[in-house]
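Figure S7 source data.
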Amino acid sequence: MNIAINTSGSAYHVDSKGYFGKFGGAYIPEMLYPNVEELQENYLRIMSEPSFQQEFEALLKDYVGRPSPLYYAKRLSGKYNTNIYLKREDLNHTGAHKVNNTIGQILLAKRLGKKRIIAETGAGQHGVATATVCALMGLECVVYMGKIDIQRQAPNVARMKMLGATVVPATSGSQTLKDATNEAIRDWINNPVDTHYIIGSVVGPHPYPDMVARFQSVISEEIRLQLQEKTGNPLPDYAIACVGGGSNAAGTFFHFMDEPSVKLVAVEAAGKGVDSGFSAATTVLGSLGVIHGSKTLLMQTDDGQIVEPHSISAGLDYPGVGPVHAHLFDSKRGIVMSATDDEALAAAYELTRLEGIIPALESSHALAKLKDINFKPSDVVVVCLSGRGDKDLETYIQHLK
Amino acid sequence: MNRIDQLFAKKQHNILNIYCTAGYPQLDDTLTVLETLQASGVDMIELGMPFSDPLADGPVIQDSSTQAIKNGMKLSVLFQQLAHFRNHISVPVILMGYLNPVLQYGIENFVKKCAEVGIDGLIIPDLPMAEYEAEYKSLFEQHNLHNIFLVTPETSEARIRKIDSISKGFIYAVSSSSTTGNNKSVDLQQAYFQKLEGMQLSNPVLVGFGIRDKATFTSACEHTNGAIIGTAFVQAIAQPGELSEKITSFVQNVRPIPQQA
Ligand SMILES: Cc1ncc(COP(=O)(O)O)c(C=O)c1O
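Tokens for the predicted pyridoxal-5'-phosphate complex:
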């Protein structure tokens, strides 16, 4: 394992100014400038220090349980008449890919001398992963979470509290992930010296989209090695992942971006249908703008107010998308699809009944597109199973017919 | 000459700048607010262009923005309201707002429209300095619009100098590292204001964030050219009562006798 540091020369990775094509940058008020500048100037240096890499790798191995298995899903493959491998991020400690990033960022925060950690969370997975590493390192932890999400992800709220975090409800706007992110940013403005903000996805001002992608890149690094071992070829034909802000997808795509034979499929949440008015399908419904400090595609009115999205899955309920995904879409390197609430639920039941794995609602969006892609029997398809479904049981049970 | 420069040419102390969200409390209150503030002796006015996700603002200004958007406020409506305001309002007026709505309107159209109706300056806190300098500075200057930058207690001296060198009008000194509407003590920030004073910047300095009454206004003015009141004013006009009376009495409480230069 190794954190990807050298990406220069790639058309799809970040450029020296913090942009992915025309997307990205750091559109922040002056109050955030010293904090963001400190990160911009230090993140690559710190991440490439041997002592940092050693500590990161040791924790990923012994604490998170990496490498996560690449599982050949035989019955699912049979159903779609192709070869489907599941990247088992659901088996990580805390139950999702989010912990790869929080381990990386807490080690960075410690090296920057920070004493207090803040985070936003949607499904609560990132909040739990942040509260977990804060407990591990003995740092104070404050997690902002939309009031609606606090209700629909109750088990994760309880976990965060048990881990010692303070969970602060975001009561403005749609009371979901976007608003929790606003509140976390406001907290950071008010605490400019001792606090590090652990953003949970490839969103926010530069360097966050790149930094988070690098911490998550371990996903595709392992996939390459595991595929080589299992199939004799490190490259799949398809890499498929769900996209909220896009961190599990960025990690899944990272080491395949410059491999044109690998089709990169990002699956967004269509909610009740792309054109229903209740959707979070950002690339289809969005246009160029600025959200949370980043220039990217976002859902907005024609006078530039950000639109409140809808998804059954709290982790995908976000009106923007990470700049790397906006660029993959814009440059046509990536393929963007979307799955409705109902399709995701059906896919969750399908995986559970065929393979005995209960997936997170977010990951179920990626699984839901297996039926819509015309695979060849010889294709090798990797789906990122970004998290496990324990937190979604109540929703699943409600829909059990 | 730009009205901001005209103001500072004849008056350098105790400048009172009041912020209000456009289209608040009611959609059509914008002009009443401008007129009454001018009649109360306010030196400069900052009009907020409401945005759904105002990152630098606390709950009061955020709620006023949400209400203004609900009232139907948007840039096209604001420019209609402001079409003839220069017939009877002569104080400098600055538009403050976030980048996204301006981008959707089109920056070039926006700047032209501002110049056409008689806006003097802009505060767009999330427009990066480097991008402004590279892409928009000449456009703004061509239309005689001053772009106002923020500095905070955490801003390095080198960056303050850089900001000063590309600023026109004045520099907006955020009183403490916070969102708008904080109650952090302004007195504690005197060392920072003194530092700014000692730097002998080429632009005047106005202090904002946390200025809410006569005491904080007076304190902020000690080492600077004046101050900006936002949250406290928005709160005051949200109270029950007749709008212009609320405005007049708020300003009277902050600065009893309108000062003449
Ligand atoms: C299991 C799981 N998958 C995916 C996501 C979406 O985030 P991202 O798009 O950053 O991977 C979340 C977010 O909470 C999640 O918990």
